[in-house]
Design goal:
Length: 183
């Protein structure tokens, strides 16, 4: 009898290691998503033509790049490898939780042939309810401020003992209470 090893029906995609970006990825990402908008996404029914492509607020966090990308089909928080400690190579489609200044957020890995591996946290998709680019920018700036800010800690309430007024008890009152009488 031969032993068969079970093969999974679907193999996860291979992990392509990210090449760290030294420079701010804003212009690179905007050029990429503008090209996608003009060539592949322009005529799709779920896009919001009131929006355009813009990358906002990219800055380093623990050595990697974090910012928001606005497109006519999504508004996402994007993590791009900068050679830092935040990045971790995982297969496309996998999820991971990152500890950010604002708290823990879930990111999804993706691998685009043109821009390479990146990870994103969907903020708004679809973006059909955003009326214009000014609103989308406002949402993106608020998201960046929130992600990079440390939440205010609420001091724990220390339970206080109830205040009991001590009344003087006379000798007669003491013995009356012992006998089960109140007054």
């Amino acid at each position: 009898m031969t032993e068969r090893i079970r093969q999974p029906a679907l193999k996860p995609p291979p992990i392509r290691p990210a090449v760290p970006r030294e420079d701010d990825p804003t212009a690179f990402l905007e050029a990429h998503y503008r090209h996608v908008w003009e060539t592949r996404m322009h005529d799709l029914p779920f896009v919001n033509t009131a929006l355009s492509v813009e990358a906002i607020g990219f800055q380093r966090l623990d050595g990697d790049w974090l910012g928001v990308v606005i497109t006519p089909w999504f508004l996402n928080l994007l993590l791009v490898s900068g050679g830092g400690e935040l990045w971790g190579d995982i297969p496309a489609g996998e999820r991971r939780y990152l500890s950010l200044p604002c708290g823990t957020m879930q990111f999804i890995a993706d691998d685009d042939p043109d821009i390479g591996p990146y990870q994103y946290c969907p903020l708004i998709a679809p973006v059909s309810n955003l009326p214009d680019m000014a609103t989308a920018r406002h949402v993106a700036v608020d998201a960046i401020k929130t992600v990079f800010s440390v939440p205010a800690t609420v001091p724990e309430a220390v339970p206080q003992a109830p205040v009991v007024e001590k009344t003087e008890v006379s000798r007669r009152g003491f013995f009356r209470r012992l006998a089960g009488k109140r007054n």
